């Protein structure tokens, strides 16, 4: 028997769905975690941290995180150009959620 409320429920209207839309994907959570641990971080440092990510994919993920207000991009007027990425206040507020994922993973990794 299906609960009567599920017929009217819409997952896309939930806070959970919104949060997942911001951090969904293979690299976004890892980028955010890296910035939490080591910010500010330059593009090449992120690429080395992520190992097998292409420049295009990393660039696209960073642009999306910046557009969502989670990551700040600072460009220094130098030649060659120097760009650093860091968490915004909004991005930093998401770190408690990602940190709890890490805690859960450590507690259940070998069980």
In CATH's first tier, which class applies?
Answer: Mainly Alpha
Q: What is the averaged pLDDT score?
A: 90
Structural domains: how many = 1
Give the helix proportion (percent range): 40-55%
Q: What would the principal axes of the Cα set say about the shape?
A: globular
* Strand segment tally: 3
Q: Point out poorly predicted stretches.
A: none
Estimated structural class: alpha+beta
What percentage of the residues does DSSP assign to strands (E)? 5-15%
Rg measurement, Å = 17 Å
Distance between the termini: 34 Å
Largest sheet: 3 strands, antiparallel
CATH topology: Arc Repressor Mutant, subunit A
User: Helices and strands, in N-to-C order?
Assistant: HHEHHEEHH
In short:
The protein has six helices and three strands; from the N terminus they run H-H-E-H-H-E-E-H-H. The chain is an alpha+beta fold and 111 residues long.
Structure characterization notes:
The longest helix is centred in the C-terminal third of the chain and has 14 residues, at 95-108. This protein starts with 14 loop residues before the first helix and ends with a helix. A hairpin with a 5-residue loop joins strand 2 and strand 3. The protein is globular, with a radius of gyration of 17 Å. The protein has helices at 15-23, 28-38, 43-50, 55-67, 89-93, 95-108, and strands at 41-42, 71-76, 82-87. It has 6 helices and 3 strands; from the N terminus they run H-H-E-H-H-E-E-H-H. It has a single domain, classed as Winged helix-like DNA-binding domain superfamily/Winged helix DNA-binding domain (Arc Repressor Mutant, subunit A, Orthogonal Bundle).
């Amino acid at each position: 028997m299906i609960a009567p409320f599920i017929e009217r429920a819409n997952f896309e209207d939930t806070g959970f769905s919104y949060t997942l839309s911001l951090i969904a994907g293979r690299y976004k959570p890892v980028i955010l975690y890296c910035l939490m641990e080591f910010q500010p971080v330059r593009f090449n440092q992120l690429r080395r941290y992520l190992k097998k990510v292409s420049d295009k994919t990393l660039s696209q993920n960073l642009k999306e995180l910046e557009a969502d207000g989670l990551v700040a991009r600072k460009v220094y007027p130098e030649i060659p150009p120097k760009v650093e990425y860091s968490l915004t206040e909004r991005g930093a507020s998401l770190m408690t959620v990602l940190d709890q994922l890490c805690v859960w993973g450590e507690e259940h990794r070998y069980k």
